[in-house]
Amino acid sequence: MNPFPIIRLILAEILDLDVDQISPETYVIRTLQAESIDLLEIGVAMQHRLGIGVDDDLLFLKNVRTVLNRAKRDAKDPLDALKSEYPHLSENRVRHILADLSAGPVLRVEDLVAYAESFGQAKG
Amino acid sequence: MHRRVVITGSGFVLPLGDNRKDVFSTLHEPYGPFIRSAADAEVAVCPVPGFDLKAQVGRCKNARYLTRGQQFCLAAAMKAVDDAGLGPRQLDQAGLFLGLGPNLEARPRDDKALWLLDFLPNTAASVMAEMLGVHGENLTILTACAASTQALGQAFRTVSAGLADVALAGGGDSRLSPAAVRAYKQAGVLALGFERPELACRPFDQARSGFAIGEGGAVFALESLDHAQRRGATILAEIVSASSSLDGGSLTGPDPEGRAGQTAVRRCLNDLGDDALCVLAHGTGTILNDQVEGHILAQTAQKAEAIAAFKSRIGHLAAACGCAELALGLVCSAQGLFPSIAGLENPCQGDLPLLRSARKVRPRSLLLQSFGFGGQNACLGVRPWT
User: Fold this and answer.
1) Which of B66, B111, B130 is the best mutation test for A, with the most CBs of A within 10 A?
2) What is the ipTM of this complex?
C-alpha cells in the first residue's frame, strides 16, 4: 500500500495545512516549516497509523551533515556514506540531497514515504 | 506606584457573535440561541456556531495542544490586539493573564508524542505568547468560574503597580463535550425539565433549576492611562478595583451566608462606589447560587440602577464567564441599553433592581462578580469611559 496519502494527512493535521499544499517533492522543514516538536509528533503519528517502527534520526535525515563530516574525515565517498546510512533512499535521491545541501534542510515528503515503504519491505 | 488602568481594546468570540454590532442586536432578541445538547437532550447548551480558528488567526500548528476553550481565548486575544491597535513594540513587554478551565478531554495517547501538553495549564499561554509576541508578566489562573475575572484583576494590579504598561487579560472555555456535560449533570447544577432550551436558564427566578452551558472567550487590552493617552488609544473603560476571596466551605455550592463573597463585593465597591451602578451578576440560575447572590446583592447593591444576568442569554462559560460578561456589559454600556434577564418572571428576591425588561441605562460604575466552584469569589470594578 502506498503510504503517501496517510503521510500527507498526518503532515496536514500536525502542521495545520491543507493536503493539497503537500506533494512528495515538498520540503518538510524548508517549506512546511516543521520544527523539532512537529517532527516528534510526525514520528509518533507515523508509528501509530502506519504500524511501523520509527527511528527519528533515520526518518528525518537528522544526521546528514554528521555523516558527511565523518566521511570527509575518513576520506570516504560521501555518496556511499549517505547510501549506507540511509538505505531506504534511492541513489538518485541521495545524489540530489548532496547537490541540494547548501539550500537548507533537505528532508522531503518522499523521504518519509521511502522510509515507510522500506519498513514494509523489511517486514514482508 | 499606583497608576490608573484603562481598557483600550476588547476581542470576543461568543455564542452571540464576535463583533459589537452582532452581539448587541442578538442580546436584545427575546431569548439567547440555546439548543439541546447533542450529547444529552435533557441539557441546554449555547454553542458558538461555525468557529474556525484558522480563519480567525491563521495557521496555528500548536492548536493541536489547545482545547476548544483555549482556542476561543487565542482568537479573542488576536481581536483584542487589533481592536486596541497594539503593535509588536507595545506587545513585546506586555503581560498576559488568562483564566482557563481544565482540559477534560486530555488522556495519555499512543498517537501523540506530547500529550503531556494537553494537561499542562500553561500551554495556552505559551502558544499565545509565541503568536502574539508578548513576553512580560503573566499568570494562568484556574480558579473555576472566577478564573477570568480574577485574571482581569491580576492584570489590573500588575499594570497599576507599574510592572507592565500593557497587559492582555481574559479567558476562554467550552464545556459542551459529552464528558463535560456529564460532569455538570452529575454535579446536579444543570437546568433540567425545561420545555424549550431557551427557557432553561432563568437566573433569579423562583422556578430556576440550574444553568445552561455556554462557550466562548473574551480578552481585553489593559494599559496604564498615561501609556494609552501617549499613543492616542481609544479608551473604552477604566478598571478601578479588583478583589477575590475564598468561602472555605463546600467544594461546589456557595457558603449559605455568602460571607466571603460579600467581602469580595464590598472590597471592590470601596473603590468603585455606587454612582449609577450596574451589577453584572454571576446569576447562574442554580437554586443555591442565586439565593446566596441575591442575599449578597441585598446587602451591598441596594442603590444599584440595574442588575444584569447575561448567563440567561449566553449560558455559563465556566472559567470564561466573567470576561465574557464584562464584554457584554461594556457593549451595553456604550449603547446605553441593557437587556432583560431572560426567563425572569417571579424574582426570588423582590427588593432588587433585577432587569425584568430591557432598560436604558448609562452606568458610570459596573461591578462584575463571579462566584465559582470551590468557593472562589472574584469581583472587578469598572467605569465605562466617558
Assistant:
1) B111
2) 0.86
